[in-house]
Amino acid sequence: MKSSTNLMQIFASLQPANEGLAHVVERHLRDYFEALDEDRPVGDLYDRVIQEIERPLLTLALRRCRGNQLRAAELLGLNRNTLRKKIRELGIQAGRRQA
Q1: Contacts of 45 (CB under 8 A, 6+ apart)
Q2: Residue 3 contacts residue 75 (beta carbons within 8 Å)
Q3: By Cβ atoms counted within 10 A, which residue in 27, 66, 70, 94 is the most buried?
């Protein structure tokens, strides 16, 4: 569970100390839902939300690992090839210069 601990440390900088990750996400999703137009179904809401979370998660993991994709994959609990695929799909700049 070392990856989970490291992941929580990454998220700790994104939230108030007394508020858990689930509460932060729920609060932001609630705001997002309130902004949706009820008359126009979105249809791809799940994919859009996952992409919005995934991009900063991968970016922060890469920064923490100074661009080392193998270490970032281990931190996230992903296969290195899966991480590389997601980096390409999301258009994330990845390299050793991440710091």
Answers
A1: 36
A2: yes
A3: 94
Residue 63 contacts by C-beta under 8 Å, 6 or more apart in sequence? Answer: 98, 99
Q: Angle 50-83-88 (CA atoms, 0-180°, nearest 5)?
A: 80
pLDDT per residue over 41-79, tens digit each?
Answer: 778 888 888 888 899 999 999 999 999 999 999 999 999
Q: Which residue type does 85 have?
A: K
| Residues sharing a CB contact under 8 Å with residue 83, sequence separation 6 or more, in sequence order | 58, 69, 72, 73, 76
3-state secondary structure of 16: coil
Place of tokens 């100390």: 17
Calpha distance 82→91 (Å, rounded): 14
**Domains along the chain with CATH numbers:** 2-90 (1.10.10.60)
Tokens of 46: 């799940």
Q: What is the pTM of this model?
A: 0.67
